[in-house]
Amino acid sequence: MTDPTARRRAEEPARLPESARAALNELRSRYPDDEALLLPALHLAQQHWDGWLPDEAIEAVARELELPPARVYGVVTFYDLFHQRPIGRHRVRICTNLSCTLRGAEEIVESVKQELDVDENQVTPDGRCSFVHFECLGACETAPMMMIDDEYHGHLTPDKARDLVRHLD
Ligand code: FES
After folding, report:
1. Residue among 144, 117, 128 nearest 91 (CA)
2. What pLDDT, on the 0 to 100 scale, is given for residue 135?
3. What are the residues whose beta carbons fall under 8 Å from the beta carbon of 101, sequence distance 6 or more?
4. Which of 11, 46, 145, 165 is the most exposed place for a label (fewest CB within 10 A)?
5. What is the DSSP letter of 37?
6. Is residue 146 lining ligand 1, measured as CB closer than 6 Å?
7. 3.40.50.1980, 3.40.30.10, 3.30.420.40, 3.40.1180.10: which CATH number matches 90-166?
């Protein structure tokens, strides 16, 4: 038998937490309209949903700002700083664009993958790290390269890349 409270909760539309709604209300006077609040609202939602935006978070933002969900999804998928799946505490982006590929990016990907023992877009069981391929990160002169969080690491070798991810805490 289904618990009626749980069923009611499951049927309730997703909402932003009270703290995020209060923060948005404070911002409202500084923005021309609610659509302009979309980026701050997504940041607040992402903080609340542990660093990523499940569908319910996106729907909650759409409801709060009275925007079509498709508009919110469009922004989420456009910006790299919003995540539609969980990410690790450290985020590794390995450039696999032309210059980096010509200088061995695929070996760097393989080495990071082996060290972390997870596939792309998966989080290590301890929550420490996840990695993705990435388009040009604008540091082609240091190819092959990757970013760990906000830091660039260039002139990589498979061993150097492995060491870098091994020592992330
Ligand atoms: S191709 Fe890798 S940084 Fe530009």
Report:
1. 128
2. 92
3. 144
4. 11
5. G
6. no
7. 3.40.30.10
Other C-beta atoms lying within 10 Å of the C-beta of residue 153: 19
Q: Reduced to 3 states, what is the DSSP secondary structure of residue 127?
A: coil
Model confidence pLDDT, tens digit, residues 3-51:
554 554 556 788 999 999 999 999 999 999 999 999 999 999 999 998 9
- Residue 9 is predicted with a pLDDT of 52
Contact indicator for 57, 72 with CB cutoff of 8 Å: no
Task: Please indicate whether residue 140, judged by its CB atom, sits closer than 6 Å to ligand 1.
Answer: yes
* Residue 92, CA atoms < 13 Å, CB-side half-sphere: 32
Burial class (CB in 10 A: 0-12, 13-18, 19+), 37: buried
Contact 126, 87 (CB under 8 A): no
Is 4-78 in CATH node 1.10.760.10? no
Instruction: State whether the beta carbon of 101 lies less than 6 angstroms from ligand 1.
Output: no
Ligand 1 centroid distance, CA of 83 (Å): 22
Q: What is the position in ligand 1's atom list of the atom closest to the CA of 142?
A: 3
| Lowest model confidence (mean pLDDT) among 2-16, 45-59, 64-78 | 2-16
